[in-house]
Amino acid sequence: MKKMMSLVLAEFHSPSDLLSASNKVKEKGYTAFDAYAPFPIHGIEDAVGMKPTPLGWIVLLGGTLGLTFAFSLQTWVSTRAYRLVISGKPLFSFPAFIPVMFELMVLFSAFFTVFGMFHLNRLPQHYHPLFKSKNFKKASSHGFFIAVESADPLFDKHQVSTFLESIGGSNIEYIED
Fold first, then answer.
1. Is the pTM of this model over 0.85?
2. 114 and 59 share a domain?
3. Which secondary structure element, helix H or strand E, spans residue 132, and what is its range?
4. Percent residues over pLDDT 90 in the chain
5. Would you say residue 1 has pLDDT above 50?
C-alpha cells in the first residue's frame, strides 16, 4: 500500500527571495523539499541540494551502443552474410562504415537522452498532491514556491509553516493527499 503524502507549500515574492529561503531551509536541516519557479534560477541547484545529473553518462552509453551496433552489423554483413566483391574493393572497408556509424551514434544518443530524461524526471507524473493547490498554478507563470514534504524526518506541519513564514513565505498551505 502506498504511503499518503502531505506537504507544506509557501510562496515567495521574487527569485532572490526563493534562493535565500531555499538556502535557509537546507541550513535548517530539511532534506525532502523542493523549490519551484517559472524559469531557471542560477544557484538554486546548490540551494536545494541537487546532485549532479547522470544524463551525460546515459547519452555516452547510448552513443557507444550506437557506434558498436553499427560497426558490428556492417562488419557482419560485409564479411559474413553477403560477401560481395564490388570493383575489387575489400570485404572489410572501414571508411565506408563511418557515415552509418555516425548516424546510429546520433540516433541512439537521442533516444537514450529522451528516455533517460523521462526516467530521471519521473515522467509522466499523472498525480502529485501539489496539483490540488490552486495557488501553485502560478508556478508556471509568475510564482516562486517551496514545498517541504512529509517524508522529511524533521517534518511537523506547524513547525514547518511557522519556519517558512519566518523566512518570508506567504500564502502558506498544508496539502494532504
1. no
2. yes
3. none
4. 81
5. no
User: Which three-class secondary structure state does DSSP give residue 78?
Assistant: helix
Residues 108 and 143 in one domain: no
Q: Where are the alpha helices (DSSP H) in the chain?
A: 15-28, 44-48, 55-76, 94-120, 157-166
How open is the CA angle 12-121-66, to the nearest 5 degrees? 145
C-alpha grid cell, residue 84 = 560481395
Residue at which a domain ends, from 120, 140, 164:
120
Q: Which H or E element spans position 142?
A: none
* Residue 108: partners with Cβ closer than 8 Å, 6 or more residues away: 62, 63, 65, 66, 69
pLDDT, residue 87, reads 83
Cell of 46: 546548490
What is the per-residue pLDDT across 137-155, written as a single tens digit (0 to 9) for each?
Answer: 999 999 999 999 999 999 9
The answer to whether the CB of 144 falls within 8 A of the CB of 155 is no
Quick check: is 1 in a domain? no
Residue 137: domain span: 6-51+125-176
Whether residue 150 lies inside any domain: the answer is: yes
Predicted local confidence at residue 3, as pLDDT:
66
Only one residue has cell 503524502, namely 5
Q: What angle, rounded to 10 degrees, do the helices at 94-120 and 55-76 form?
A: 150
pLDDT at 10: 96
